[in-house]
Specification:
Structural class: alpha/beta
Bound molecules: 5'-O-[hydroxy(phenylacetyl)phosphoryl]adenosine
Number of domains: 2
Strand content: 15-25%
Strand order of the largest sheet: 4-3-5-6-7-8-9-14-13
Number of strands: 21
CATH class of the largest domain: Alpha Beta
Shape: globular
Number of helices: 11
Distance between the termini: 78 Å
């Protein structure tokens, strides 16, 4: 018997991944994979084939990557209309897993994976963890929900592929999360940023400080969060907070990830082909310009997605990252084209409210935006939690704080909103995606 543990095959060297491919090699690989996936979707997905035929397109219409712009978009309703299995491109016996995203109304959207697709996803997640400096020997506590949501199993397989130790705790049961973090010496936590904030708070109540634990990194995503929120989390938790992006339709988490420079998310371009389009006209936009992110899966065969309109607003960063990765970055996603609400004729995104209120001291990043309508007039109230000390302060001080927050938000969105300060722990906490907007406006 050998006395030493042999090197395992999952010993992982990030520099040998496609993250660092020469640009011309990367583009050639993308084109070859684009051709294969378009041909595969055309042959096996009737919905896609029909849309191509309507536009006089065949797989041969794709000569260069630019030709992709001729192909039709896929949108969320295509998944809904073909529920549950209508966009599957392989026979059921090759599909080893399905996931589904809950959605707010009606049936979920269903996504599928072959064994190879699962391996590709694990690869993307492994590279995501490596990008923020995690490695074999690290203990990763995975508090994304396991189940139909892609967060839990996506992060799980990636962490295992990295060779790290996974704690598959799933979301919820916050006291146990904190106990495990302490007892197991967790080095990294995976969950939504809003849930981690809740953990920090709960740990305080339990007489523990997350700051004193060996946890050094958070892999946070699944919901929009701002740089102000990052600063807040990093200070309170004494960790580095990294942004991870993904969506069920494309694979789940691991489409894009920040590296240690925390300046934009690297898209794993050998696996996912990004485009930015003008959300109104659908025309492609050049690197650097902000628009809607459209993604094509290059290596996903159970359910290929061709030009999927994510509704997420960002831009592709034109310059090279200091980390040396050649795969391009997108700016972090602050908003979706469909989470915008219009109030008194002004377009507002929840993230703008978050930025405004976190510019003011003594507020907590727990807030909710409530929209109501009286006599045809829209009202917006932002409910903001303040620290316990602030809440017990004199009324005049509370009033001054409230006004400061109103002014800070007005500076960003150009309209006055009503702010209501509420006691700590009154805004509902989420163990997954936070619900920021409550729209109680009824059609009159
Ligand atoms: O949220 C997958 C995921 C799990 C990503 C864990 C990251 C970590 P869905 O439930 O399908 O999948 O939701 C996808 O969530 O289109 C974005 O609008 C939003 N989203 C995801 N990550 C981020 C992020 C998962 N880092 C939708 N920043 C996406 C902003 C995000 N929005």
């Amino acid at each position: 018997m050998p006395s030493q543990t042999p090197e395992t095959p999952c010993e992982f060297n990030p520099v040998s991944t496609p993250d660092y491919l020469q640009e011309d090699q990367l583009r050639a690989l993308q084109l070859q994979r684009l051709r294969t996936i378009i041909a595969h979707a055309y042959e096996n997905v009737e919905h896609f084939r029909n849309r191509c035929k309507e536009n006089n397109l065949t797989p041969d219409s794709l000569k260069t990557a630019r030709d992709l712009a001729k192909f039709p978009f896929t949108v969320k309703t295509d998944l809904r209309d073909t529920y549950p299995f209508g966009l599957f491109a392989t026979s059921m016996k090759d599909i080893v897993r399905v996931h589904a995203s809950s959605g707010t109304t009606g049936k979920p959207i269903v996504v599928a994976y072959t064994q190879d697709d699962i391996n590709v996803w694990a690869n993307a997640m492994m590279r995501s963890f490596a990008a923020c400096g995690l490695h074999r020997g690290d203990i990763i506590q995975n508090a994304y929900g396991y189940g139909l949501f892609t967060g839990g199993l996506g992060a799980h397989y990636g962490a295992e592929a990295l060779g790290a130790t996974v704690i598959p705790v799933s979301g919820g049961n916050t006291d146990r999360q904190i106990m495990l973090m302490k007892d197991f010496g967790t080095n990294a936590i995976c969950c939504t940023p809003s849930y981690f904030l809740h953990m920090i708070e709960r740990a305080d109540e339990m007489g523990l400080s997350i700051k004193d634990l060996p946890i050094r990194a958070g892999v946070f995503g699944a919901e929009p969060w701002t740089d102000s929120m990052r600063k807040h989390i990093e200070e309170l938790g004494n960790i580095k907070a990294y942004d991870i992006y993904g969506l069920s339709e494309i694979v789940g988490p691991g489409v894009g990830m920040e590296c240690v420079h925390q300046d934009g998310l690297h898209i794993f371009e050998d696996l996912f082909y990004p485009e930015i389009i003008d959300p109104e006209s659908g025309e492609p936009l050049p690197d650097g310009e902000e628009g809607e992110l459209v993604l094509t899966t290059l290596c996903k065969f159970a359910m290929p997605m061709i030009r999927y309109r994510t509704r997420d607003i960002t831009s592709i960063m034109p310059d090279r990252c200091a980390c040396g990765r050649t795969i391009r970055r997108i700016r972090r996603i602050g908003r979706r084209s469909d989470d915008m609400f219009i109030i008194r004729g002004v377009n507002v995104f929840p993230s703008q409210i978050e930025t405004g209120l976190l510019n003011v001291e003594n507020t907590l990043p727990h807030y909710q935006i409530v929209l109501t309508r009286t006599k045809g007039l829209d009202n917006i109230e932002v409910q903001v939690e303040v620290t316990a000390e602030t809440f017990s302060d004199r009324i005049s001080e509370m009033e001054a704080l409230r006004k400061r927050i109103e002014t800070a938000i007005e500076k960003i969105i150009n309209i006055r909103v009503a702010v209501r300060l509420v006691e700590p722990n009154t805004i509902p906490r989420s163990e997954g995606k936070a619900k920021r907007l409550i729209d109680n406006r009824k059609e009159e």
